[in-house]
Give the backbone structure.
Amino acid sequence: MDKEQRRPIADEQLHGDARALALSIETIRRARGKKNPRDVDFGTPEWKNTCLEFARDLRWALGIGDDGLTEGRRPDSP
């Protein structure tokens, strides 16, 4: 397999859309008084929990349920 076949797909529009979505979620979380993964020390239990919460918010923004994230519930759900 040559280098061209192993190279990841370069899609600037998709990258831009993903970055905009992540920044939107960070902004919403900050407005709600929640921390983002970059706000806590890497590798700590707080970082892991923050990453899970961020992933849940990302899935919510994409219209995907929490079924795949079973480690705890969203803090804003009963």
